[in-house]
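Appendix B, example 12.
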Amino acid sequence: MSEPKTQTPILPAATILLLRDHPAFEVLMVERHHQIDFASGALVFPGGKTHAGDHDPAWEIRVIGWDASPPHKRALRIAAIREAFEETGILLARHPDGAPFRGVAGPAATRDEIATGRRAFIDLVAELGLRLDLDALSVFARWITPPLTAKRFDTWFYVAVAPADQLALCDGWETVDAVWISPAEALRLGEAGRRKVIFPTRMNLRLLDEATSAEDAIARARARTLVTVEPRIVDGPGGKLLVLPPDAGYGDVREPLASVM
C-alpha cells in the first residue's frame, strides 16, 4: 500500500512595493543573499512570511487602520511593514499627532535583532512612540505558489509611497543590495541576464510599469478587481506552460515552464 502524499503547506506572506517619484518613478528592490534557499540572488520587493508577533492583539494601540481590516489581514500589513524595515530600514509609521516618522528607526543591529526574533518589533515601535501606518498600504496583487515547488506561499503584494526622508539600506544578511529602480529598467536587466528576476516579480513589475507615477500606481491598484493568481500548469505544443488567470490584470500569460523554474 502506497503512502499518502503530504501536501506542502501554504504559508501566508506579504511583500511591499515602495514607490517614489523623485528623481523619477521608481520602486525599491532588494537583492537576496546568494545563500538564501528561496530566490537566492534575485532582485525582489522587500517581504517575507508572517510571524506570530504580527498577530499580537497589543498592536491595536500601535497601528493606524486597525478597524479597517479583519485580524489576518492586519497581520499581513504589519508583516509587510516589518519586513520592509528589516530589509531596508524604512519604517512606515506616524507619531501620535499624525506626523509621518522621519529619520532612522534603529541601527542595523536593531534590525537584525527583530529579524532573528531576539527583539519584538512591537517593542521597538512602542519605544519610539510610533504607530504603524497600515492605511498607507493598498493591495496590489495576491499570488499563491503553484504546487510544484518545495515551499508554497500565499503572498499579498502591497503598494505604498516611501517616506521621502528615510534612507534605504540593505540589511547585509538576507539582502546584499537595496536599489531604487524604474520598473522598465528592472525588467530590462532581467531580460539581459544582468539581474535575476523571478517570474512573479517580473509579472508585477510589468503591471507596475503601466503606471506613470506613484499616485497613478496606487490609484490603478485600488481600481482593479483583485483576482488571486494561482498559476496553472497546462500542456502546450512545445511542452508545459505556466498560465495566469486571464482576468487578473496581466494579460494573456502562457509562459514555458522551463523558463520560470
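The domain at 10-226 is CATH 3.90.79.10 (Nucleoside Triphosphate Pyrophosphohydrolase). The two ends are 32 Å apart (CA to CA).
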